[in-house]
């Protein structure tokens, strides 16, 4: 019975080890798409090589000693007793020190390199990041725009993320680009990243922050420089006025139910809320609440029961509204695009 349990535990352990590699490739540190990610991967390779070397050497010595000095039938003599060995003690002290130096030198050097702020000649982009339970606010002070849960950047240029938390401790991590960095209330932290090529890179909060910590996702969307500049212009000149009759009803309902917490610029609203994610150009985002694909069906489900999607979210339910009112909200919110759309 004990043998069966041991085999079962071994199988479970092997499956657990195997399936840890079955993750989203956009969340992989071993496929870096940024300078910082590549430097950190080199440190991972170095530390793995050192640990593997130590493990192999210790295992070989252990196996040799077990076989060489095992008890043999008829052998009753007492082996030579050795009390201390200056040579061995020096060897097993010096070797770990050397290994630590081999690991420490590139680690310290890399740390200083990734902390170095980019020169003005590199045309860095500053993006202010604020973590909330359970969403992300991205503000572009140089362009005067704000978005949520999706951050757009130009590929090939350094991005300086200036980060803080609104409530509890969060952590900003984009595995393919590098990181991570904590966001703490009352304290500013910085992180310099750069995407080598255009693409969509997944990010997550990696500091346990509440019920929906695992759903506190965001996306980094890297563009060619011309596309990024066009996106900035489209956000600066956005038109949030409804066009269809149904969307106009939705715009009115947003003013009654949503605008106290959310902001929609150039929509004719006298109040721009700041407690929830900004909804300007919401219709061109790829996801809703960082979790659901952005489409009318999912938006309807989110409005009617946010807690079912993100437990602990401060977003209230709009299940009290009639179906045609929900349809109007969906129509208006999905119509919000940048000016070039």
TrEMBL record:
Domain Cytochrome oxidase subunit II transmembrane region profile: 14-118
EC number: 7.1.1.9
Residue stretches spanning the membrane: 44-67, 87-108
Domain of life: Bacteria
Cofactor: Cu cation
Subcellular location: Cell membrane; Membrane
Key words, A-Z: Copper, Electron transport, Heme, Iron, Membrane, Metal-binding, Respiratory chain, Translocase, Transmembrane, Transmembrane helix, Transport
GO cellular component: plasma membrane
Stretches assigned to the Cytochrome oxidase subunit II copper A binding domain: 122-234
A family per Pfam: COX2
PROSITE patterns attached to this UniProt entry: COX2 (PS00078), COX2_CUA (PS50857), COX2_TM (PS50999), CYTC (PS51007), PROKAR_LIPOPROTEIN (PS51257)
Function as written in the Swiss-Prot or TrEMBL entry: Subunits I and II form the functional core of the enzyme complex. Electrons originating in cytochrome c are transferred via heme a and Cu(A) to the binuclear center formed by heme a3 and Cu(B).
Descriptive protein name: Cytochrome c oxidase subunit 2
């Amino acid at each position: 019975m004990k043998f069966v349990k041991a085999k079962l535990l071994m199988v479970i352990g092997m499956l657990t080890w195997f399936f840890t590699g079955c993750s989203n490739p956009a969340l992989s540190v071993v496929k870096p798409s940024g300078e910082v990610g590549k430097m950190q991967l080199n440190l991972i390779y170095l530390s793995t090589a050192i640990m593997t070397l130590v493990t192999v050497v210790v295992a070989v010595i252990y196996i040799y000693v077990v076989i060489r000095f095992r008890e043999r039938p008829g052998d009753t003599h007492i082996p030579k007793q050795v009390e201390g060995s200056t040579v061995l003690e020096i060897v097993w002290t010096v070797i770990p020190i050397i290994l630590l130096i081999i690991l420490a030198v590139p680690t310290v050097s890399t740390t200083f390199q990734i902390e170095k702020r980019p020169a003005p000649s590199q045309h860095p982009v500053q993006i202010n990041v604020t973590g909330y339970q359970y969403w992300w606010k991205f503000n572009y002070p140089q362009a005067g725009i704000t978005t949520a849960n999706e951050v757009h950047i130009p590929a090939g240029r350094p991005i300086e993320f200036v980060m803080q938390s609104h409530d509890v401790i969060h952590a900003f991590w984009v595995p393919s680009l590098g990181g991570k960095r904590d966001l703490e209330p009352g304290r500013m932290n910085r992180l310099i990243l750069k995407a080598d090529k255009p693409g969509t890179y997944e990010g997550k909060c990696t500091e346990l922050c509440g019920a929906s910590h695992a759903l506190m996702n965001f996306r980094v969307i890297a563009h060619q420089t011309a596309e990024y500049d066009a996106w900035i212009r489209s956000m600066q000149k956005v038109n949030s006025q409804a066009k269809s009759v149904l969307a106009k009803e939705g715009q009115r309902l947003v003013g009654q139910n949503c605008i106290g917490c959310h902001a929609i610029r150039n929509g004719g609203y006298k109040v721009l809320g700041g407690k929830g994610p900004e909804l300007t150009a919401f219709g061109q985002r790829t996801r809703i609440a960082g979790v659901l694909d952005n489409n009318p069906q999912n938006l309807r489900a989110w409005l009617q029961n946010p807690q079912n999607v993100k437990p602990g979210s401060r977003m209230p339910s709009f299940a009290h509204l009639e179906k045609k009112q929900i349809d109007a909200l969906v129509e208006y919110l999905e119509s919000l695009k940048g000016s070039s759309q």
